[in-house]
Amino acid sequence: MTFRGEFAKGTRDILPILPGFFSFGVVAGYAAIDVGLPPIQAFAMSVIIFSGTAQLAALELLDTQAPAVIIVLTALIVNVRYMMFSASIAPYFQRLAMRWQGILAYFLITANFVLSVERFDEDPTASRRGYYLGTSIPFWVTWQVAAIIGIVFGARIPADWQVGFVVPLAFIALLVPELTNRSKTTAALVAGVIAVVGTGIPFRLGIVVATIGGTAVGLGTEVMR
Amino acid sequence: MGGVVLGGWFVWLLVFVIGVGTFGIRFVLIPLISWIELSPLMETGLGLIPPAVLAALVFPNMIILDGSLAGIFLSPRFVAGSAAFVTAWYTDNMVATIGVGMSVLWGLQLVFV
Description:
The complex is a heterodimer of chains A (225) and B (113). Chain A is mostly helical and 225 residues long. Helix content of chain A is 76%, strand content 0%. Chain B is extended and about 55 Å long.
């Protein structure tokens, strides 16, 4: 199918998941304000990083005065999954100019990755750029509008409403669909327990230790099986 | 918040470094993939990092070790987080998960404070 037809199809397919991510975008926009960033930096973060998980992880660490190296490493570590996505989607984009590969990579998230690979396998003649951008651009626009709403209205939410708890709640919503098998569930449980026990480790290094520990134990259950 | 000047160059630098790094993670394997191949074990390992790091960020927000079991399991945040977890499990819906979690937290606050 043509670029235009595939773009429309991609847009139709991404639509149902947008409300959920809209609320996550509001949370991410609000979180930046909550930590104390001025609106321009909060919005720049949303456009430049374009990853709720990385934005929230960075903000949470910024709030606790973690060292810059830990903030950067944590924000990148939470997105290592993108590397698998890009590895997996690369064969479909191999014939594109590197300039296009770069543009498409900027938009790469879980939802457009999953939908696109499914579509590319279903119809090898489909315009890949069309479909991928059809899923990506509505998502991107939704994310940025949500960020602006979080930034503008978040600033007026009273502190005792505990709106900050929305951040771990959003992480729970991201975490639960990840628990698809025993090794992933083990990795999460072990990492969570280590993180609780390691709360006293300075600069929130406990999170890095917990992630490595959880991953190692989870991989162990996979290898032993 | 103290030491860090929010709004200053430090935060701009952080945003740009994380932005460039995130883009790099998303991009680098696309042109390189014809030369690099991940072993199945590596792929499995990378796939375990998201649930591990998400749990590492969530658990300490729900569970605070204060010496008593009741203090842990009856705290509003633990109950609210657990309700959110159950909601996410059955609905796979972020709006519902956040809605239930915040409602339970606010409800418990009204009752106990």
